[in-house]
Design a protein that fits this description.
EC 1.14.15.45; FAD/NAD(P)-binding domain; alpha+beta; 20 strands; 9-stranded mixed sheet; 2-methoxy-6-polyprenolphenol 4-hydroxylase activity
Length: about 475
């Protein structure tokens, strides 16, 4: 109330002063310009999901942005989170780089205060052969991953964001259209459905796989559907145990994975055909548990050629004194499903040929979308945040415009050099394991066993995934 009164008094004083000037000025135009100039921001972030909110928080805490104005536009209502006893069925497997980012912005301490799961070991195996690979915390000198509910992560980052004076968040923001910089322009314009207009020096699109920012940019977007759905649920383990292993078994219809939450609970991500997913969702709890245990435990008929190839290859590894097999740990049995936790979402691939144009950059799912079999989707987005934070900070330090193509091209180059190989590898794995064709089964089994045998190669893979 007092702020509004002071603002009105200042407005009246300005109008009176202008009216007393000895020459004629359009005071309404000047006041309109003065008010509209408050709608200009150095950075506008479109999309307030996990990646967009973290980007706003990261830039807001960057000391180089201390005197810059940042606007976060989120179409949804203000996120109100309250801890529930039942775990959410939507979780993310966060790699060490993402952990470091969240710790740096102060969000990890809030996650620690609530709950998360730790992955100290990962076991991946093929249902059609004896091939297996493991990743151990001891081998890698750092945690393999952290399993965090999406809502817990978003609430943790939101707590830090609320403390920042240089970041403004607008919820229920309905964006009508974007007007991106032309050849001689330096700003983007965001027109809202309620008639409000915002301008900015750099527009950052964090608005998901159906990004309006990307569509307005007009960049080529390569995408396809896998004709698969990812079934998620929170499942109960048959025995109370130290639950620190992430399990993933490649089935002919797609991988099934269990991610540790507590000693009694795990998060399920089961990728399968659309038709099979529909059937699984329609089962009773008891039937679903039986189907899940079968997916994890069922012994599939192995082709004799595959068996002989594996035996011969293992003898060769033994001869050159490389480990031919890992210590196989038995996966857990499932005793139940948390009520109402079963759901499914479509799986697909997408990649923008360009992440940037003048004054605009795509971040997270707006730029890239991958199959969840490697748990890298959200980590690629947080990697974008890390790189963009550093490069935009360098632009400010050098006195350049935030929308400078030179700096945005550096962001695009660095991230595509990391994202594209990762995405192609994930898509390749999906195709490689989505068949029962014997020569392919032999090839992938030998490859998996060879990767396990070469510890430096195994470390290189996990180090790349951790970035």
């Amino acid at each position: 109330m007092s702020f509004n009164i002071m603002f009105l008094r200042k407005t009246v004083n300005v109008r009176n002063t202008l009216n007393r000037l000895p020459f004629n000025l359009n005071t309404n135009s000047i006041l309109k310009y003065s008010i509209n100039s408050s709608n200009h921001y150095d950075v506008v972030i479109a999309g307030g999901g996990m990646v967009g909110t973290t980007l706003a928080c990261t830039l807001g805490k960057n000391t180089k942005f201390s005197d810059r104005r940042i606007l976060l536009l989120e179409s949804g209502k203000k996120f109100k989170w309250q801890l529930k006893e039942q775990y959410s069925n939507r979780v993310s497997a966060l790699n060490p780089s993402t952990y470091n980012l969240l710790d740096r912005v102060g969000a990890w301490k809030h996650i620690t205060d609530v709950r998360y799961g730790s992955v100290k070991r990962m076991q991946v195996w093929d249902a059609l052969s004896d091939a297996m690979i493991t990743f151990n915390h001891d081998e890698l000198s750092e945690m393999v991953a952290y399993i965090v509910e999406n809502d817990v992560l978003l609430a943790a980052v939101g707590k830090e964001l609320e403390q920042l004076q240089n970041v403004t968040t607008i919820n229920e923001a309905k964006i009508k259209e974007y007007q991106l910089p032309k050849k001689h322009e330096d700003t983007s314009t965001i027109n809202m459905e309620d008639g409000t207009t915002y301008t900015c020096n750099v527009l950052l699109g964090c608005d998901g796989a159906n990004s309006l920012v990307r569509k307005t940019m007009g960049v080529h977007y390569v995408s396809w559907n896998y004709n698969q759905k990812g079934i998620v649920a929170t499942v109960k383990l048959s025995e109370d145990t130290e639950n620190v292993v992430a399990w993933q078994r490649f089935l002919p219809t797609g991988p099934v994975a269990l991610l540790p939450l507590t000693n009694k609970l795990s998060s399920l991500v089961w990728s399968t055909t659309t038709e099979h997913a529909k059937t699984l969702l329609g089962l009773s709890e008891e039937q679903f548990v039986d189907a899940l245990n079968e997916a994890i435990w069922k012994t599939h008929q192995q082709n004799s050629m595959v068996t002989e190839a594996m035996k011969t290859f293992n003898k060769c590894l033994d001869f050159i004194q490389l480990p031919s097999s890992a210590v196989r740990q038995l996966p857990p049995s499932i005793s139940g499903v948390e009520p109402g936790s079963r759901a499914a979402f479509p799986l697909g691939f997408g990649h923008a040929s360009n992440y940037i144009t003048k004054g605009v950059a795509l971040v997270g799912d707006a730029a890239h979308r991958v199959h969840p079999l490697a748990g890298q989707g959200v980590n690629l987005g947080f990697g974008d945040v890390n790189t963009l934070d550093r490069i935009l900070g360098e632009a400010i330090y050098s006195g350049s415009s935030l929308g400078s193509l030179n700096y945005l091209k550096q962001y695009e180059s660095e991230r595509q050099q990391h994202n594209v190989p990762t995405m192609l590898a994930i898509d390749g794995l999906h195709k490689l394991y989505n068949t029962e064709f014997t020569p392919v089964v032999i090839l992938r089994s030998l490859g998996l066993q060879f990767t396990h045998a070469l510890n430096p190669l195994k470390k290189a893979i996990i180090q790349h995934a951790a970035q």
